[in-house]
Amino acid sequence: MAARIRSNKNRDLEPNLYESGGYYKYRHPQTGKYHGMGSDRKKANVAARKLNAMLIPTNDLVSRVITEQSVLFGEIITRYRKEYLPTKKLKPRTLEEVTYRLNRLERDLKDKRVDSMSIKVIADYLDENFQNNAYIKFRGLLSELFRFGATKGLCDTNPAENTLAKVADDKKRRPLTREWYNAIYAHADDWLKVAMDFALITLQRRSDLCAAKFDDIRDGHLHLIQQKTEKHGLRAHLRIRVVSSLDNVIKRSRQSGIASPYIIHRRPVRIRRSKSLVHWSQIRPETLSKEFAKARDKVPEIAQLPISQRPTIHEVRALGGHLYFEAGFPDEYVQTLMGHSTLKMTHHYTDRHIKWTVCEAALPI
Q1: Start-end of H helices in the chain
Q2: How far is the C-alpha of 80 from the C-alpha of 334, rounded, in Å?
């Protein structure tokens, strides 16, 4: 809308500044709201001039050149993906998680000028969009993106690094008891029962469970490379002897009627091609978690708990470790299967399953 023609007495007023009865008011060019500017004509003009400079987009040649030279945050993300991310040599699961976060940041912030991304802008974005561990992960990735951008001359500061660094929340999940395991098992599909027993016996993480193939069984041993601990050396390369209990689980898997290369597999409702799957019967780690959660939530005693307290598929690993100790297996045996670098970590996983015996000490003396 074109500005109104000024009367002769108001021709010296700045745009958006108006006078009424000796009192001046400024009309916000974006919201249309009026703000009082007092009765001093000179001061009101100075204030209106500053406000216009801040609130009205300019079309002068200098501003256009500066704007064209400004770096958008999307450019940093694009170059980070192409130049730096491949050098990190992340495991497939970790790469998938980082890619998910990059996609989110690209969607939300790609058109932001880097020089306009202040500490407050980043802090507000994090506070408004993420909580708990998600906040920590996205803040860390933003910090790394700005550090990368600085090495390429795309930015001079790292506003994310100066935002609040939060501490990870304490886990509140209930340990999975043998009784709960059996109750969940009763609601599980056949393939999920195989997965649960496979996890309980081998004590492997879900990514390693889903990656295990029948071809990994050679000379009576199951060969597994634990993805999370592979960089720590030979402890991550396990050659697990296939004894009767594990052999029974593998045989049940082979009886599914599906020609799958993977020990944990199923026939999906719809077979779709996917770049993230080698075979259509393969189970993604997140799918294993979701399907376990569906069966878990059919158990009334567990379903009444807050979601944050309900045990996940990961708790099967901890229960299995506890059962090994309960059966008299030595510490080193369980630690090796779990792939922990220290026995302290193994005990941290399994000690939550200890049941306290109720008694009294009431001797009168």
Answers
A1: 41-55, 61-69, 73-79, 92-109, 119-129, 132-151, 178-187, 190-202, 206-211, 244-254, 285-296, 300-303, 314-326, 331-338, 343-350
A2: 40
d(C-alpha 72, C-alpha 62), whole Å:
19
Kindly list the domain boundaries of the chain, sorted by start residue.
8-56, 73-162, 178-352
d(CA 332, CA 343): 8
Nearest residue to 316 via CA among 223, 212, 193: 193
The single-letter code of the amino acid at 185 is Y
CATH number of 8-56: 3.30.160.60
Q: Give backbone dihedrals phi and psi of 8, rounded to 5 degrees, phi first.
A: -55, -40
* pTM higher than the cut 0.70: no
The domain 73-162: what is its CATH number?
A: 1.10.150
* Cβ-proximal residues to 331 (8 Å cutoff; 6+ apart), any chain: 325, 343, 346
pLDDT in tens, the chain (365 residues): 445 555 666 778 888 888 888 888 998 887 778 888 898 988 988 988 888 887 776 555 444 444 445 789 999 999 999 999 999 988 777 888 899 999 999 999 999 999 889 999 999 999 999 888 889 999 999 999 999 999 999 999 999 999 998 876 666 788 899 999 999 999 999 999 999 999 999 999 998 999 999 999 999 999 988 876 655 455 678 888 999 999 999 999 999 999 999 999 999 877 777 766 788 889 999 899 999 999 999 999 999 999 888 999 999 999 999 999 888 998 888 888 887 777 787 777 677 666 666 677 867 88
What does the chain come to in residues? Answer: 365
Q: Does domain 178-352 have CATH number 3.40.50.150?
A: no
CA 236 centroid distance within chain: 25
